[in-house]
Specification:
homodimer, 338 residues, alpha/beta, Rossmann fold, 6-stranded parallel beta sheet, 6-stranded mixed beta sheet, 44% helix, elongated, DNA-binding
DNA sequence: GCGCGCTTTGCAAGCGATTGCAAGGTCAAT
DNA sequence: ATTGACCTTGCAATCGCTTGCAAAGCGCGC
């Protein structure tokens, strides 16, 4: 039934050798105008297209990029996935997705399977990679770039925003806004993103002579963030500002503050997020946040990966600077115009 | 550099033939306990794993499923993508994603590339497929199943909810709630989902002796929906209820009604959506909606696809029934308890 | 000890392309 | 007309595996 058309059939119909057909479809292959025309005609008549898998076997390039991702609930990632995939598609690569849990143990078998598929490169989105795995990939000559997650390993490329600087921005903005009791609902401290944002925030506060009145790790989980907000803000001397580890959780926190605790934002409490997901701009939330420039992150990721695949460049750790996106969820410092 | 381990190397180290190694890794391959043990040992020492691509070449099965998707902004699709991918992963298939625009012309080249990758099957999520393409896929023996989109073509499988019935539910609920001026901001009328929901809604109203006071196609676009809401509800005799073609747009409509027009939901206007995306349940929105059971849709999709790949079953058009999920965005009919 | 059936094994032919190599062609310069 | 440089072309090996086929091995009843 499945009438596969092969280069051989095209060759016969065109009256040329099979290699000629192959050459016609290989960029830079040496074919005369005449043969090219014959092959083109025959190929079109037969509806022939080269078999990527066969090509992959002999050339050793599959034009497949493995993308490991933990979850799509946080609105930042669907966006990243779409942009990454589209950017790669434009460069004639395709993305093979693999879902993992957010633990190194669960990533291990997933990456194994990735390698089975002979991917040309791997992007991990918000997922950490064990040393053992890094070795395997390095040994197999497959470049890895971590998207929105860092790791202290020179063999791994990574693209992140400057989370420490971002945390500092948050501190400056909240202190500048005249807040006295500043709290922090942190991103997962098991990830560099979470840790660095927290670190920058703490440092920033300290530099301005402030200290957090409360802090809790919500592990990038919506429900956990809500739970923490509930207890953190129910006491009498509740915080008057909170920096949340990412937007996804910040929105949850806003919901709790307004709908469960009846607080008003930003009059009673200022809320600051991190990421700038599309929802942050919706009228209901108008979340002030540290913006991660997804487009630039994606471009950097794709460039780094393809450079490493096509040339043999060294791994790069890229740091992109974020910026403060001011909306209405946090009191604005006097004279703050940026 | 890239030290690929092949079955031949394993064979040598184990002191058996290369076929024996292959058989060991083929489920159902005939190998004695003794050889199995030798192969296992050698394979582990060398870190050998079969090359999926090479296997695909000879067996004709790549264990890759192509997923064509138009956009991830509507929160229904990230969810679907994740569930589909996880379900397939569990059955030892992987998903190769392809982004397309929502027009048949743009889908064409995308599916071409899919075929180049020798995928075993194709899932299209909310994307239509041209006849020409259907033919190519049928000719190549590659089953296609459309997720959340129907099409009148017996060669295509599809999984949708009963959108007509859903539209009727919406009509019943709004009429039952005592609304007099009922409007409709429709899903894209170029898609079966949009048309069917509208159709069911119109029929449902008519059966109850009602008629829409306004209707407009918002093409599943957030901004367009907002724009339409703005004009539709700014007149003096504005509607007192609106059924929106999906949740993604409904949330936008709610934002406009409340924040721009200062209307109160559901006191001034009742809003009804379709899908039941996670956001619909967030306290800010509490959107009453027609629920599409994603889990069941995904299971049905995966089952249909794999049945067709593995057996040689006929295409199936599966209709799953949705249900009304009552929250707070629409006035509830008296005595309505369900 | 021989023959029969069943399982296990190895050989070798593909799967559909790419690519190095050498042969054949073309064309300009001599 | 002859030569050499250069472009085209075809041959055949190769990528890493699966699988049909026939030979080998094994256990068992006679």
């Amino acid at each position: 039934m499945s009438e596969k058309v092969t280069s051989l059939q095209v060759a016969e119909r065109a009256g040329v050798s099979q290699s000629a057909v192959s050459r016609y479809f290989t960029p830079g292959g040496s074919v005369s105008k005449a043969t090219a025309a014959k092959v083109k005609k025959a190929a079109e008549e037969l509806g022939y297209r080269p078999n990527v898998l066969a090509r992959a076997m002999v050339s050793g390039r599959s034009r497949i990029i493995g993308l490991v991702i933990a979850d799509l609930k946080n609105q930042f990632y669907p966006m990243a996935l779409e942009l990454l995939s589209r950017a790669l598609q434009e460069r004639d690569y395709q993305v093979l997705v693999f879902f993992a849990e957010n633990s190194t143990e669960s990533v291990e078998p997933v990456v194994q399977r990735l390698l089975d598929y002979q991917v040309d490169g791997i992007i991990t989105a918000s997922v950490a990679v064990s040393n053992h795995l890094t070795e395997r990939c390095t040994a197999a000559g497959i470049p890895v770039v971590m998207f929105n997650r860092g790791q202290d390993d020179a063999r791994l490329s990574s693209v992140t925003t400057d989370n420490v600087a971002g945390g500092r921005m948050a501190a400056n903005f909240l202190v500048g806004g005249g807040h006295a009791r500043i709290a922090h609902i942190a991103g997962w401290q098991g990830a560099t993103t979470g840790r660095d944002r927290t670190l920058g925030f703490v440092e920033g506060l300290r530099d301005l002579g402030h200290e957090m009145v409360a802090m809790e790790d919500a592990m990038y989980d919506r429900d956990r963030a809500a739970e923490i907000a509930r207890t953190m803000f129910s006491g009498a001397d509740r915080p008057d500002a909170v920096f949340v580890g990412n937007d996804y959780m910040a929105l949850s926190v806003m919901d709790v503050l307004r709908f469960e605790l009846g607080l008003s934002i930003p009059d009673d409490v200022s809320v600051l997020g991190y990421d700038d997901v599309p929802l942050a701009d919706w009228p209901t939330y108008q979340l002030t946040t540290i913006r991660q420039p997804v487009n630039r992150m994606v471009t950097a990721t794709v460039d780094t990966l393809l450079d490493r695949i096509e040339g043999d460049i060294e791994p790069r750790q890229i740091l992109i600077s974020g910026s403060l996106k001011i909306r209405a969820s946090a009191r604005r410092p006097k004279g703050f115009t940026a």
